[in-house]
Amino acid sequence: MRALLNRLRKLLASGPNRIALSTALRGTMATAVPLVVLPHIGLGAIAYPAVLGALATSMVDVGGPYRTRFVGMLIQALGGPSLLLLGSVAGEEWWLAALVMAAIGIVSGLIRALGPGGASLGINTAVAFLVGLQVGASGAPSAPWAGGYGAGGLLTIVVALSFWQLRPYRRLEQEAAGAWEGVAALVVAIAVAEDGSVVARRRREQGIAAAHDAARNAVEQARASIGAMRAGTAGPGRTMAQLVVLLNAAARIGAAVVALSEVAPVPDRPAAMAELVAACRAVAKALLDGKGDLPLADFRRRFETARAAAGTAQDRADLLAWAQALRHLDNAEEALRLLFEGRQRSWELLQLPFAHGLPKGAVIGALRTHLTPRSAVFRHAVRVAGVTALETAMLAYFRLPRGIWLPMTSLIVMQPEYGATVRRALERTFGTIIGAALAGVLLTSVHGTAFYDAAIGLLLFLTFLLIRRRYSYGITCLTPLIILLIGMSSADPWFDLAERLAYTVAGALLALAAGYLLWPAWEREQLRDRLAAAIGAVGAYLDAALSAMAAPDPEAETNIRALRRQAEIAVANADAGFQRMLAEPARKTPLIAAGFALLVYLHRLCRHTIALAAQLGTVAAPPELRGDLQRLLMAALDDAAEALRQARSPAARPAFDAPLAELASACGGAVAPLLGRLVSDTTSLLGATAAAAGRASQV
Hints:
26 helices, Methane Monooxygenase Hydroxylase, Chain G, domain 1, mainly alpha, 3 domains
């Protein structure tokens, strides 16, 4: 039991889990208060509607700038009751209900263009209308439901504002901590020893690639959040400036250790790796706790000892990586000191102007851009409107007592990409099956008791904790919660649950059919362009790194860091597209093998370029030797990207051998083997491109 508690404590101490836990606590506080307070003041009739409104409004708060979050929650809190009333009235005429649902479907699909908050707002406003349909069909008075729904939404806004004012930068600090934990996990993956077998080497490389992607995603997510917050901050923004320094330090340490994954280990490396992991986790812990020191003394001593004993080129490669890591840890230590010293500057709260927003016309411009059949967002909106309007017409015409689960499921399941729709359908269906069974147990065993409300409170907390990190688990908790909140009394609750389950399965199947038949956006048709864009981005990064080998240039180093981010993002986008393609139906098979090979070599080429960039300043390559190899590599990568777009085979492999041998001999050290790996990656990429182009032409 003690080991289990320690494990649980460690899990909850991480940055991403802290974010989920704080969100769950805030959401549970907003939703549980009506459940506890309203029955004691004679307003028990609106308790469940208030919980439902608070739940929907909390779901709309997905993070981002304060003003955007506030506006989204306010629209939900005020618009939700209006749509609920409209649903209770529109249900009398099936054609009116279908027409309103079609309009809501178009809007809820289009506002995905505004980001994750828009997608959540669209779904929850549509659900409010569907709840109104069920309330109207049951004969229950709609005014108490609408009033309770709105009161719960407004209470959620009050709770959220209270948390924002108490800790205005807390979420940013948690996301920065998550980035440092991601870098620590990357170091752990690189430190894994090999036994020399091909299987172990491949497994280690896959682990490094996965950890590299996870660290990059964590850094980019934190960058996006800080960038959005800085856009709404007046004055110098000292806190966010220090957080930017911390993120830059994390990204550069990650780049430094990636270089070590490409050279053979030295005896002292495992101990140094362990100390670096401890230092990265110490930075994350300090950000989460708001205090703490970094354990850098042993790391510094080890570095000084290694520098005094460095002899071989391989030793110097490790020494360079440790020097870079130590320099960035020093920067992080200084940033933490300044960050913690500024905690008592309450006047910084005044630098968050609540009225700051997007440039005039930005929202309308974004929506107008997608008002075309060429837009995947527009096609998705039409699919949502068509399917949900048809289902709403059926439930209103036939007076299906629990029929709202049919359009509600389709609304939530349908995604712009078919592969994502398949995944969401499976998660929703299996989560609903388990959740419906749990709801049946609660309805038949503890309904009308204090345990019933306690179960609702627990389900609220678990839903908020899991819904954005483990969707299927979150749905397992959300399904019985919705059943318990909006389910009307019945003589046979098990029959009602079976009926809801049948509607859920039917809604998921209709969503899959719509995604397949109505303007499908097949990832297999876009994968070649994504791979070509990734080859181009990695090629631009490699070109800049090779050009900078002549002499150190601070301006060039800044440009190289920006190109590295672009290359990593492009490779990650291609990888995500490939994964979505795997969920698509028939005719995807010819692209799988070639696409997988291309992604493997793209990951390698990107990682080896990061390792080469980490060596800049250690060698000065002769321009004439560097230029010959550079031109051949760039021509080969450009041809590979163009060949993918045109579905043709690339030209024959260039004559890399002679310029490679001359440049490697001139550079020596750790750079020489890296140059060989870059040429090998490019050659392999050309072969995979020929296979991919040929296979793609068969699709």
